[in-house]
Amino acid sequence: MAMNYNAKDEVDGGPPCAPGGTAKTRRPDNTAFKQQRLPAWQPILTAGTVLPIFFIIGLIFIPIGIGIFVTSNNIREIEGNVFMYYGLSNFYQNHRRYVKSRDDSQLNGDSSALLNPSKECEPYRRNEDKPIAPCGAIANSMFNDTLELFLIGNDSYPMPIALKKRGIAWWTDKNVKFRNPPGGDNLEERFKGTTKPVNWLKPVYMLDSDPDNNGFINEDFIVWMRTAALPTFRKLYRLIERKSDLHPTLPAGRYYLNITYNYPVHYFDGRKRMILSTISWMGGKNPFLGIAYIAVGSISFLLGVVLLVINHKYRNSSNTADITI
Amino acid sequence: MDCSLVRTLVHRYCAGEENWVDSRTIYVGHREPPPGAEAYIPQRYPDNRIVSSKYTFWNFIPKNLFEQFRRIANFYFLIIFLVQLIIDTPTSPVTSGLPLFFVITVTAIKQGYEDWLRHKADNAMNQCPVHFIQHGKLVRKQSRKLRVGDIVMVKEDETFPCDLIFLSSNRGDGTCHVTTASLDGESSHKTHYAVQDTKGFHTEEDIDGLHATIECEQPQPDLYKFVGRINVYSDLNDPVVRPLGSENLLLRGATLKNTEKIFGVAIYTGMETKMALNYQSKSQKRSAVEKSMNVFLIVYLCILISKALINTVLKYVWQSEPFRDEPWYNQKTESERQRNLFLKAFTDFLAFMVLFNYIIPVSMYVTVEMQKFLGSYFITWDEDMFDEETGEGPLVNTSDLNEELGQVEYIFTDKTGTLTENNMEFKECCIEGHVYVPHVICNGQVLPDASGIDMIDSSPSVSGREREELFFRALCLCHTVQVKDDDNPDGPRKSPDGGKSCVYISSSPDEVALVEGVQRLGFTYLRLKDNYMEILNRDNGVERFELLEILSFDSVRRRMSVIVKSAEGDIYLFCKGADSSIFPRVIEGKVDQIRARVERNAVEGLRTLCVAYKRLIPEEYEGICQLLQAAKVALQDREKKLAEAYEQIEKDLILLGATAVEDRLQEKAADTIEALQKAGIKVWVLTGDKMETAAATCYACKLFRRNTQLLELTTKRIEEQSLHDVLFELSKTVLRHSGSLTRDTFSGLSADMQDYGLIIDGAALSLIMKPREDGSSGNYRELFLEICRSCSAVLCCRMAPLQKAQIVKLIKFSKEHPITLAIGDGANDVSMILEAHVGIGVIGKEGRQAARNSDYAIPKFKHLKKMLLVHGHFYYIRISELVQYFFYKNVCFIFPQFLYQFFCGFSQQTLYDTAYLTLYNISFTSLPILLYSLMEQHVSIDVLKRDPALYRDIAKNALLRWRVFIYWTLLGLFDALVFFFGAYFMFENTTVTSNGQIMTTNTHMIFGNWTFGTLVFTVMVFTVTLKLALDTHYWTWINHFVIWGSLLFYVVFSLLWGGVIWPFLNYQRMYYVFIQMLSSGPAWLAIVLLVTVSLLPDVLKKVLCRQLWPTATERVQQNGCAQPWDQDSEFTPLASLQSPGYQSTCPSAAWSGSRPQQVTLAVWKGKVSAEPPPAPGCSHRCCSSSPRHGCPGSLVGMLV
């Protein structure tokens, strides 16, 4: 009977190819991928596998945290290079209107952008029919207080501390991203046809006497142009280099800070600060990271213990469950 | 005769209904009919151009765009994009425009390509040459130029260019053979008949001289229905009117076989052909996952809007102090200042919307679509679901429902051809109470003659012998079987043993089985020639019967008849049909004996048919002829009139006997059903068969077990009691036990859950479904549903196709809204396949209609097991993880952005760079989840197959419940808080600085807002990717490649993106940001710390849940690792699964037993070889929770 049917199928199977032939062609390939049988590692997160990981995290994180914490606290010692920062608070450098108010092409020395700055710079784009260089709100509001540090020696005579202006901006910013417009040696000549930002006292080509630190590649300017992430921020102002291994960079004593006050902050309820700090292998003074590492390490360790207990109890409960069988 | 009709037509036309006429008149060969014959209103018919393409070259772009933006998601993204274009928003339009453009373009290209293919196919079809008759000559033209009324010639093996009325063929008897393989997949040859009065026209000249009109209904998609009339005019007489039915109609797409050429007249052309009308797409089905996804989307849309609202309000509160709104260092332009406050607030709101819009990602849609499309290949590739016998593999007609396969709660299965082989075998026949069993095989050989008959009862008398032969003749004549012609159709084959060389073809396998069975009993049906049926009787003599009428089979009448005239001139009506449709029409014969036998056979699962006859005197026959003719010519309600006529004709029959045909169960059908039931799926059998047969099949395939208490809701019972009483009684029985208040008396054992099986028949169902006079039909339905819910298996017999769909609908819309699956193989299952959430077609013997209309097609019922338990399960966990993960990673992505607003004066400043915003979803985090959602296997295929109960773990959309969704969202929020505030404290407390030792210069630098964003983003990309890594249970090399590759790609991209001054950008904000960040020690430390902190809670949750409340799946996973301590207490030994007796005593254990028994036992044996393996008795005690005969404590101790 069944044979009869097969015979019929073969004759009647419509298309000229016999079922056997079609079977060969239509049969799916027996590859591991197609059959979803690729060799695979099948890890499962069980208490057994995770427990050691928790302990390991604890054991690794706590020492790291302590290390960071200690290093971070040791930074107080004013040895090695000292960095001088100015800090502003309540200053929204991250406001959208502010962040985008710049023209990177102009800052990169593009001469057409120099004379025709981007529309993003409005309302600091043109002044008295002349394009502003550098245009935009960021540049316009550049921090222009001057800070000077003096050591008051035994003879009460304030000794000025040498503050290094160079080397405070990213190397790439200074050498690639920011460039003065092309032209001859005379910087003023290169900025011809532009005007200074409204709030500035001096034009951009008079920011510094050093030709390698003037114009757009002035490092104070570059630092300012890197907009801060949060409304309370600090920016690197100067570098106090260590002169010799014998003497501390800033020896103990009385210091005198001279501030030329240009920058108004009261209007927006802001504060100014000056910070001196050294840095270590892990950056500036930063108790947060150390504390966080210690906290996470201990929590992880604790969780490991809790898991161990639960695991143990669970065994017990499964024990009793089994007994009821 | 047709005057009245003409009048009505005229009436209708005059009444102004010209636009729509329910019939059309066609002039054959465009010849005007004789004047005055008819009022004619010309109708416009389309040409024979088939247009399956959707677009033309010109309208492609607008139309395709319109179609695409009709999708709500695309429209939403378009709006966002437009908002970005119009107002000043924080992110550039590129960020949302690019992904949208990508999606739209890819879709457009795909659709354009598909349409181009359709155009090509259309052109090929429209331009293929067709032979016309024009002015008596044969002309070749392109197919598209064909018009209604043209006379067409078709040669052998050509397909018909349009729907034709068959006028004549070169065969003398005016028949032709046709296969409709491309229409409905049936490859059998069907015979079509030429119009009686035109079948003599064999040449072009003849046919050109034909003068006729055809009236027929307007085109409709039903392939098997056609009514029309032809009026043939000759010069002398009145027009001859002939009925036209589907047997005269040759459909476009069908192929001419075994016939040299035919002539036909075009009646439906182009898009009006039945084939074209059938191309209409099915209604779209949406899966439960998609529905949940849309609900989640709405939730996120609400979150999005509220976020934007909150920020807008806060912004204006914050800005109320002028020094904040416009400090001296950050002034507005004049136009900004002058803008209306409300307009400003509104644009701010829109800007916030744009800023946060990534929370609903475009890429999710793309990924889901890709996952479904690519994932569905795993079904077609599956070797286990390939059937060697037929050479068929599974087909996926839609990939939208893949995950629905993992959610099925009800299966509605057809019986014949689905549960059973549909490979019929003639078992026995009962003639006048004597039982005949043909010995099919005797020593491996088919016995040719009557000696094969084994008569169980005493030998019949002479009159008995007469009856016996009449019975065999009836079986030989009463059918629609065709004999497969060989090359020379006129050479009658006279082989004494007939059987093996004759190949019978029929749409019904029962008929073939009967004809073949009778052949073994000595009567061979040879062929139908010139309306004469030839049979070879036992004495090798050929008997010829003139076939007068066929009263064809239909599923309502459940019987068919033929009227034949023997050589002696006697006219017989032979009727064959289901017992219930024959017995009431019988007036004579040994009804009781035969009925007893039929019932006995039915209980054994055999398909029974009764055969009856009556002798007609010529006058009676005349009457019948007229009755039939009248019904056949009717244009309206022809079906109904025919049915009435049949009813009148098939009565006062004399019962001859009954036949029994066995339809064997499909291989592993019982196993499959058992597995599905263990998976928590309720299996219902819906069949047109009679109750006894169906019930027997149900027992055979273990749907009903020995201890199943059967509840009957049948017509018979309802006749005795009222429906109301029956229903209430049943519900009482069922509810009593579900309340578990009483002890079951049936099994004598304690039973919290008695197994109930319900049997209901079509008539009872329609009573339940019928709205009552007082309009309280809902009552019965509810009650019925209540009963059904408490039954583990339901059998619905005597179902009409539409009733099957009705049942599915009833369950589908019951209050739990369960997911339903319908599986069937025949045309009668199509309605339920279309109705159910998932429709599965079995590629069977009854044509391919079911397979064509289904969502998935499989070669055998047994493949359903792997389809649901493995593929469905996988698809479900994959897609649910995909959906949840997408929401999670976008919460992680956008929530820091939201938090940042509080620190940037609500100015909509973005935290991340545009490139990161754009690429986060497209490339950094897209591939790992896509590959996860294609490859993930949380447990192996074999385990899923072995342990069907795992399917319950994902039932009811378990992985997309609100609880899970909220967990994921909270996890996302937590992670976002960690990223943001981690970075915040790093930046706030002191500068994150770099001493630049990695760089060449020894400087000490300050990081700005872009570094802040990059730090958050880096932590996020790593966390989100590693979170997926934690969820991955199946690490193939592809997963490794994609996960680690994505992270690597992110780093490389960031290095590159920050490493170059990009000339096309008008800002260089990212220049060296990433590299500088990496040169800072604290940044590294922060990344490690924050990633760890973000992942810890999830790991903890996973471990704790697994330890304290493990799901069945988790236990199985762990078992694979041979963790011995988590033996579950609810195990069931093998014995209790195998024996139904145990099953009833311990059903809860058997059902929730979460581990395959083999595994359990293996572990036990392996662990404690010294101890005796647990006796089956243990399982009993587990149910009664009594510790007294516990397995030895030492054993437990060792296990633990």
Features:
heterodimer, A: alpha+beta, 37% helix, disordered C terminus, B: 1200 residues, alpha+beta, eleven-stranded mixed β-sheet, nine-stranded mixed β-sheet, 44 helices, lipid transport (chain A), disulfide bond (chain A), transmembrane helix (chain A), cytoplasmic vesicle (chain A), Cell cycle control protein (chain A)
Beta-strand percentage range of chain A: 5-15%
- Round the Cα radius of gyration of chain B to an integer and report it: 37 Å
Biggest interface reads: A-B, 123 and 138 residues
Q: How many helical stretches of chain A?
A: 11
Helical run tally of chain B = 44
Strand arrangement across the biggest beta sheet of chain A: 6-1-8
Could you state the oligomeric state of the chains shown? heterodimer
Q: What would you say this structure looks like, in words?
A:
The complex is a heterodimer of chains A (325) and B (1200). Chain A has 325 residues and is an alpha+beta fold. Chain A has helices at 2-12, 19-26, 47-74, 96-99, 104-107, 111-115, 137-140, 171-177, 187-190, 219-225, 287-323; strands spanning 82-89, 126-127, 130-131, 146-152, 158-160, 233-240, 254-260, 271-277. In chain A, strand 2 and strand 3 form a beta hairpin. In chain A, helix 3 runs antiparallel to helix 11. The model of chain A is unreliable at 1-24 and 316-325 (pLDDT under 50). With 1200 residues, chain B is α+β, with helices and mostly antiparallel strands. Helices cover 46% and strands 17% of the residues of chain B. In chain B, strands 16, 17, 18, 21, 22, 23, 24, 25, 26, 27 and 28 form an 11-stranded mixed beta sheet that branches. In chain B, strands 14-35-34-33-15-29-32-31-30 form a 9-stranded mixed beta sheet, with helices on both faces. In chain B, helix 18 (618-633) packs antiparallel against helix 19 (638-649), helix 31 (926-935) runs antiparallel to helix 35 (1037-1059) and helix 33 (962-989) packs antiparallel against helix 37. Chain B is globular and about 115 Å long. Classes of the chains: A alpha+beta (325), B alpha+beta (1200). At the A-B interface, helix 1, helix 2, helix 3, helix 4 and helix 8 of A face strand 7, helix 13, strand 20, helix 33 and helix 34 of B.
